Amino acid sequence: MKKNIIAGNWKMNNTQKGTKELIAQLAPLVAGKDDCEIVLCVPFTSLNTARKAMRGTNMKLGAQNVHWADKGAFTGEVSAEMLAELKCEYVLVGHSERRQYFNETNDTVNKRVKKALEFKLKPIICIGETLEEREKGKTASVLEKQVTSAFVGIEKSSLKRIVVAYEPVWAIGTGKTATPEDANDTIWIVRKALRKLYGRTSASAMRIQYGGSMNAGNANELMAMAEIDGGLIGGASLKAEDFAKIVESANKVNE
Ligand code: PEP
User: Fold this and answer.
1) Would you place residue 173 in the very low, low, confident or very high pLDDT band (cuts 50, 70, 90)?
2) Which of 15, 124, 156, 244 has its Cα between 20 and 30 A from that of 42?
3) Would you say the CB of residue 172 lies under 6 angstroms from ligand 1?
């Protein structure tokens, strides 16, 4: 049975001090919740501190982006080798904030995914439609395009190392959550797109998270849906108790 995966996206939050404190608060709250996987995607500057603070816990380290080149004149970017050296296991790719504010495209998402895999990092590929796209009835076509582009040139054998996060852009940081049924139906569209590429068995085995204002209050219902294999959590991942409750929801579904 596949394990649910709960990933916290800290975004641009937490200094070294805040990183140590939050991990110290979280560790006892999520200890023993081993029927799901727990990942913290921290800012680059916190990776080393987080790595040390997480030793001996059941939490795994993630970054929030990775560049597609091996090295060179890419001011402000971080390479896959640099992340691998810090024992980073996961990395977010194509988060909607990267697409919206930093011109991330389906093509650059694909390049980043490939480079991450080359260095044995596990990409969490973020996809999702905007409110405008949803209102114009374009959700399915937007998601299909994002999926097919992100997976260009990716072998079936790599799929077990990849997670997809479906995050409707209109639900991120807005307090508006997709209803569990809606999130489930839309993730089914994503899974069908993966089926077309890799077949039924491989697509069913892939983990697809829901993200967008998931919190301690709505996690139970979302996690109970058949197609939802975890969550990508922004705001609520900054509060230890809230994040731990979400982990609990993901854990008990698989118990
Ligand atoms: C996110 O940043 O991926 C996210 C889902 O944020 P929030 O939970 O705050 O909506």
Assistant:
1) confident
2) 156
3) yes
